[in-house]
Amino acid sequence: MNYFNGFSLRGEERFFKKLLVDSDFAVSGFSYGAQKATEYVAAISKRVDRLVLLSPAYFSDKDRTFKRMQLRAFRSDPQEYAERFLRNVAAPQRIDLSAYLSLGSYEELEALLYYEWDAQMLRDIAARGTQIEVFFGMKDRIVDTEAAAEFFLSTGACVVYRLKDAGHLLQ
């Protein structure tokens, strides 16, 4: 299985063991990694049976001011930004993610915030026979799960799961 990490994280896939399939024909990604996993599957020609998007980073509903504020805060103090970000990723649980911290770059955060999900790309991936599964925690403090779920459902290409008491980390 190919797995793509979330922003400023390494090794966090252990939190998703129940949702991941250990197969050469599966690709998964968490948050920022969901964006990267989707781009990867769209770009390759090899067989992929299952694309699993775990709390995909979705900021299309946010304005430029929000995005610039995030980037400004990161540039001001990347370590503090990442630590605060990881606390929000773990919420509503109090999971210490410091062991998984791998400080991301300004460019990665910018790419994450300004990424535009492409409905046609998702439909093209599904048309190749890939099942696309999207998981959201309904107590997510990172993304607006209602707006994100609405987008993925509107593509007609994705199965969307909403976990009632879970946050961004799906715990």
Q: What order do the helices and strands come in, and which of them pair?
A:
Blueprint: E1 2-4, E2 26-30, H1 32-43, E3 50-54, H2 64-76, H3 78-90, H4 106-114, H5 119-127, E4 131-137, H6 145-154, E5 158-163
Parallel strand pairs: 1-2, 2-3, 3-4, 4-5
Brief digest:
The protein is α/β, with parallel strands linked by helices. 39% of the residues lie in helices and 15% in strands. The protein has a five-stranded parallel β-sheet with strand order 1-2-3-4-5, covered by helices on one side.
Q: Rg from C-alpha positions? A: 15 Å
The amount of beta strand, in percent, is 15-25%
The helix-strand sequence is: EEHEHHHHEHE
What best-fitting shape do the alpha-carbon axes yield? globular
Averaging pLDDT over every residue, what do you get? 97
Output the CATH homologous superfamily: Alpha/Beta hydrolase fold, catalytic domain
- Can you count the beta strands? 5
Helix count, DSSP H or I runs of 4 or more residues: 6
What is the level 1 CATH name?
A: Alpha Beta
Task: Trace the largest sheet across and list its strands.
Answer: 1-2-3-4-5
Count of distinct structural domains: 1
Question: Main sheet?
Answer: 5 strands, parallel
